[in-house]
Amino acid sequence: MSSDEQPPAPRSLAEALRARDDASLAALLRSRPDLITPVPTDLTQLATRAGTRASVARALERLDRFALQTAQALAVAGDPATYDELLGLMASDDRDPVVAAALPRVLDTLREQALVWGDDDRLRLVRTARELLAPQPRRPSPTGLGPTVKEATAGMSPGRIQEILAAVGLPSTHDSVSAVASLTALFTDRERMSALLSELPADSLAVLDRLVWGPPYGQITPEPAPHLRHLLDRGLLLPTAPGTVVLPREVALHLRGGRAHRTPEPVPPAVETAATHHPQAVDATAAGQAHTALATVEELLKGWDEGGPHVLRAGGLSVRDLKRTAVALDVPEPVAAFWVELAHLAGLVASDGEADERYAPTPACDEWLERPAAERWARLAAAWLVSTRTPGLVGERDAKDRTLSALGPGLDRSAAPEVRHRVLTLLAGLPVGAAPSAESVLARLRWERPPRGVQREDELRERLARWALSEAELLGVTGRGALSAHGRALLGAPPPPAPAAEPAAEEHAEPVGPGDKLPVHQHHKHPQHHRPGPDAGPPEPPSLAERTAAAARALAPLLPEPLDHVLLQADLTAVAPGPLQRPLADMLDLLADVESKGGATVYRFTPASVRRALDAGHSAADLHAFLAAHSRTPVPQPLSYLIDDAARRHGHLRVGAASSYVRCDDETLLDEILADKRSAALRLRRLAPTVLAAQADPATLLEGLRAMGHAPAAESAEGDVVITRTASYRTPPRTAPEPVPEGPPPPDAALLAAAIRAIRAGDRASASPRPPAAPPATQGELPRTSSAETLAALQAAVLTGETLCIGYIDAEGTAGRRVVAPVRVEGGLVTAYDHTADEVRTYPLHRVTGVAELAEDER
After folding, report:
1. Domain extent listing, the chain
2. What kind of fold does domain 772-858 have according to CATH?
3. pLDDT per residue as tens digits for the range 804-822
């Protein structure tokens, strides 16, 4: 296309958006999802919304450091600015080749996000962004530059301006406007400005050096020193208020060599490798930690099986209960808070909602315990990955000075899943087995999301990254600090780079060296000309469910198979050399006490633990048979004696409820109990030769007799032995807590396509008035189908992209036909592109009378 055939330059952001193709509009809406909520009626409304203060501020916050530096440079450049002017501000007079190579990419990003529009000869930063980034009175810009000469002399008397012209050797003018223009021309002329500065004394130059990189304001006395008077007379410092002076922007840029920033950062800092491990060692370590994570969560559920701690009035777990949980799990309190929160996120623990509210396992817990170990881990990891809750805040205080408690309110931080996902993505970009240094990860995140100047928020982002690294190690997503194979599958990351290859910076162009030939900067007049194609964007990434399933498949071969046996030893212990099958583990928990954990679990048999199994209704024969069936070693004789002795004594004494009583056929044994001083607290007295009465309740009497070394059994009112089994307590069905995101979620491809189609239709309608819409069809009946058929047809149309005719009754009771292309069906609503209205609309399903194929005249 010749220069004469080039389309005219856009005069507004709306015109610039109108020149874009669908792929470019989709990229804009994907990067700034707030613009699509709700869907704009046309491109003019889209441009207006893209220029609102809240939307622009949110877009600026998501720019990387170099893109933000470029926007800041445009804010202090002319309006409009040329590409060469912007290049000078970013790459200085020396034209830094690395900055020059990275600038086109960043400029494309700013254009894509509608923060910059216009051709290379007329670059414009949207007005709201300029207001947010440009210098204001008493507020220098992030570049450290002050106001221009024109802005700083706005309130200066004409005579004073003429005095400055005379001091710098410029001819006087007839008005202030031409005088300011003449002074500005001097300060922007490199040669004349160098000559002017060469005449200044060293003390004056030292003052300029202190102000050149900001802040550009300084204080002076009513009678300034001679070296300051030199600067004031020549306009190199201009007064802004009594006792305050400012360094004009043009002077500062000359002293900086034309650069807007002291240190432009076009290339992200590399994530440094702190250690390199064999991939198999990484996967094995991560799998071992995943197994430990499952065991810890199961132990937590077991400890709360009969009902966990009470819920605080304000919600959450008390400090005392968290300490008890930490002791039970044998972990520090912050780690205990993480496991409690993780069980809650996975929907395994919740409050029961009763009057005496307490935490307990949910019904979903039983289903989870029956799943294979890899699937159980994947569910925990997926819940952690997308959660906005941050257990690391437990114990701190909120803005109202209230303590944040585990499972309580106030722990949601919307940035948590984004930071967590980004940290893992950086790990996935390293060679397999490479563990990064935490500081290099933090430096990279600071480049990608520069600090906003709000200390609390900036510190939180760094803490979120540190927590992500430690929690990933606890959970088994990483091993020895490196991302595991199942962690990579959970993330949906591409295959890892070869170890010998240099890790490339994700989403950023590779810098060129000083000796490399710079690419020619071109094709920026019409962004759609260099788009890859007319599609609405890249293919949809795998869903969380698909990634969770892939992670489970990757982890399954690394986890040990559950065992059906133990090793009995002569010292009344049993060694489980690995995880046990659930029925075996449950029975061992009843029959023995856990003595130690690790690679192998050691159980110890005691009289109390054997009595616990007998109380649950198992006979001595049952216990002997169980041990013989599940031990790879012969049952030791001391263990057989222990079981027989406990069974022989078990139930010899009977305790019932009178207040309570003890009965026994052996009168000598009752005499022994009465003579024992330890029975004094029970206040026993003989009612009959074989019966003792007590003032204590049956439970206290049982515990007292057991403390004296006896093995009593409780009996019912009918005289039968009471078998005590632990009653599991479950909450009513509960759903896992939903993440609390900041702003609307990114739209999917179907919604993007429908929205762009509606925006284009609205734009055409606003350009050429549409004829009045035809009234709703009255001939014949509306489409009538059952609710199930309607739902099935709409869901099928979402998958196939088919256009349908629906019958619809609006809120006023008016019935009509609508030609729609369904986009989403959920929550009792159908979101569709309405061809009748040329816009995206949402219809309640209960108002849809039915679905039918399009008639010939509707196609």
Report:
1. 149-255, 413-501+544-559, 567-649, 654-714, 772-858
2. SH3 type barrels. (2.30.30)
3. 888 888 888 888 888 888 8
